[in-house]
Design brief:
Elements lengths: L1 H10 L2 H24 L18 E10 L2 E9 L6 E9 L4 E6 L3 E2 L2 E2 L1 E8 L2 E10 L4 E6 L1
Antiparallel strand pairs: 1-2, 2-3, 3-4, 5-6, 7-8, 8-9
Length: about 140
């Protein structure tokens, strides 16, 4: 069987190897070329300059709607609790409409903020809690 493989590869001429290599290259290049034809032009809309509260940062856009967007703001807490998290609603001109602090305490314990996601039109707050007695970490959603 090994003699057959050796004979097969010696029977391929260098011109055939170039042809196969070129065809393989074009095959790999095709998705990249077609992907460019499906791209859309970006639309950027600038609003007024945003004055951020001190020690805070907009960290991510949670969701984009037809009339604005929801963003996540994290603020460094002055206590040992870590971060305070806020969901902020901006209109289409990037004017702040609403800001709501997310409650990170549960039964008197502080949970660690992980993320906020929007799924099916609903917001989900993901937090974690380390139970020192059971030596387990829990991921909680609200």
């Amino acid at each position: 069987m090994s003699n057959f493989k050796f004979l097969f590869f010696t029977a391929i001429k260098p011109a055939m190897i170039k042809l196969i290599g070129s065809a393989y290259f074009l095959f790999l290049l095709t998705p990249f070329l077609l992907g460019q034809s499906l791209s859309q032009t970006a639309k950027v809309s600038w609003g007024a300059e945003l004055r951020e509260p001190s020690n805070s940062t907009l960290t991510k856009v949670i969701a984009k709607t037809s009339d604005g967007l929801y963003a996540l703001r994290l603020k460094q807490s002055t206590t040992l609790e870590g971060f305070k998290a806020y969901v902020e609603r901006f209109d289409e001109k990037m004017n702040l409409e609403r800001s709501e602090e997310l409650e990170l305490k549960y039964n008197g314990k502080v949970r660690k903020f992980e993320d906020v996601i929007r799924l099916g039109g609903q917001f989900y707050l993901l937090t974690s809690f380390h139970n020192q007695v059971q030596k387990k970490n829990y991921l909680l959603s609200k």
